[in-house]
Amino acid sequence: MTAAAAADAPAVEVVELVGNPRVGSRTRALADLVVRSLGETVAADGRGAPDGIRLGVPVVIELGEAVGVTFGARVARASAPVEDPFGVVRRARLLVVATPTYKATYSGLLKLFLDQLSQGDLAGVVAVPVAIAGAPAHRDAVAAALRDLLVELGADVPAPAVALLESEVADQEEHVSRWVGTYAAALGLGSPAEPVRAGAPTR
Questions:
Q1: pLDDT higher than threshold 60 for residue 78
Q2: 102: nearest Cα among 27, 154, 33
Q3: Which pTM does this prediction carry?
């Protein structure tokens, strides 16, 4: 794609929804990396997406900031409220939903937010579940549960979750690069990758 064509290409609205109660978490960093890597794949020479699609600047909603939650007596207030965060999520075309794993599933904060959406509210949205877990069984459980929740809300989830173990976070760039190379085309954001070798990890 030429520079002029890229500038004229329609921008995909990208939203990162981070369900970690702690702002600036590893969960947020992993979501940022996924979006950045997808953007680099789309922009790379020879790997442009179909019809000249390009990714817009992501809107990041950290639920630790946008939602006032407390486990004590003090009243919690949103420190950085996002105007109509539900509308922002509904209007997304690419929605990256990231969560830590609590008790083998996504965070209660993320559930609290997504429970405010109705079935079908995410129709037309391509969603990417992102998770960090401590054990393989928990990783698989949270990836499946988050995918099912997003599908229930109407989202298209055409690729497996980016689900890393805590022990893999240090090498997250390698894991995300492999995932993007394998699944960007399934998201409609890149050319098909070379076939993954038998036995090669995709998480």
A1: no
A2: 27
A3: 0.82
97 DSSP 8-state letter: E
Which amino acid, one-letter code, is at 134? G
Q: What is the DSSP letter of 2?
A: -
Residue extents of the structural domains in the chain: 9-183
Q: How far apart are the first and last CA of the chain?
A: 30
Amino acid at 163: A
pLDDT tens-digit profile of 98-124? Answer: 999 998 999 999 999 999 999 999 999
Tokens found for residue 3 = 């520079």
* 3-state SS assignment for residue 96: strand
Question: How far apart are the C-alpha atoms of 121 and 105, rounded to whole Å?
Answer: 22
User: Which CATH number is associated with domain 9-183?
Assistant: 3.40.50.360
